[in-house]
Amino acid sequence: MAIARNRSEVEAEIRAHLGIVPGFMKDIPEAYLDFEWELFKNLQLGETLIPNKYKELMGVALHSETKCRYCTLFHAETAKLFGATDEEIQEAVHYAKMSLGWSAYLNGMQTDYDEFAGELKQIGNYVKENMAQHAH
Fold first, then answer.
1. How many other CB atoms are there within 10 angstroms of residue 36's CB atom?
2. Which of 51, 55, 47, 60 is CA-nearest to residue 87?
3. Cα-based distances in Å from 18 to 11, 55, 57
4. Sequence-separated (6 or more) residues with CB below 8 Å from residue 121
5. Over the stretch 70-86, which tens digit does the pLDDT of each residue have?
6. How open is the CA angle 108-113-116, to the nearest 5 degrees?
7. pTM confidence score
8. Which parts of 7-112 fold into alpha helices (H)?
9. How far apart are the C-alpha atoms of 38 and 10, rounded to whole Å?
10. Residues in domain Carboxymuconolactone decarboxylase-like (predicted)?
């Protein structure tokens, strides 16, 4: 295991990035703070394969379901920082609502999984073929 930086070093870096050390980070035990900050900084705030605006919209949708008001607020505000509009945030939440409804229905009806997977493959092939035909 790598040697972690001490609290004052990590908090100085957090302040440099965020302007303050948020209370939720102040509460993290020193033994974990450097590792938690690095993950947060790199995955949450850093440039990754998924553009930050879209990661945050996924976070809004996800936490509208987990019902964590802290996470929902965090991701909505961060999505705005990365350029999301109120309309995009609303669409992300609507998408989560629709997707969760289908999840409840398919699970509640105990839809055959293998049949469902086969139908999705069939639909995917059909759509790809039609997209290729319309492109020419």
1. 15
2. 60
3. 10, 19, 20
4. none
5. 999 999 999 999 999 99
6. 100
7. 0.83
8. 7-18, 23-26, 30-39, 52-66, 69-81, 86-108
9. 9
10. 27-108
